[in-house]
Amino acid sequence: MTTQYKNHSRKRTPWDCNTSLSPMETFIKSKYLDSYDYKHPFIKETMEADLLNSYEVTCCKRCASTDFKKKGFTKNGIQRYYCNICKRYFNVLTGTMFDNHKIAISEWIEFCLGIFRYESINLTSKNNKNSFTTSKYWL
Q1: Is residue 67 classed exposed, middle or buried when 0-12, 13-18 and 19+ CB atoms within 10 A define those classes?
Q2: Cβ–Cβ contacts within 10 Å for residue 68, how many?
Q3: What is the rounded CA–CA span in Å between residue 28 and residue 26?
Q4: Are 41 and 48 in contact, with CB atoms under 8 Å apart?
């Protein structure tokens, strides 16, 4: 017996496959996508990099050495550092749950607040416009 799981995107509307939309469908789709984009900002468009760059780094996140130097920025604008002892790169998020994250921290916070309010995973995924499997994975 094969079971095939199919998860639908929260970004989709019922008429995504239609080429000609009525004015009402166009309006609803536009407003829905605006809401989706508001819930899922690009990290570069938020002030997240400014917040993270404001934290002072005192030692290497990998080997705890104090012999490191600034070495550019990540694609999201977060300051990168290079450790002269372990010869590896790190940033302020290295070794945290947000290491290599692609989702804005504000979205994670909103998800956690939903869980702390005892909302179900399904409801939290609908409120954040994530798929159910994403919400399960985040836990």
Answers
A1: exposed
A2: 22
A3: 6
A4: no
CB 55 within 8 Å of CB 49: no
Q: What band does 4 get if pLDDT is binned at 50, 70 and 90?
A: low
**Residues 6 or more apart from 91 whose CB is under 8 A from it?**
52, 61, 74, 78, 79, 80, 81
Measured CA distances, 89 to 49, 68, 70, 74, 139 (Å): 17, 9, 10, 11, 28
Whole-number Å distance between alpha carbons of 114 and 128:
9
Structure tokens, 44 = 């570069």
Model pTM score: 0.64
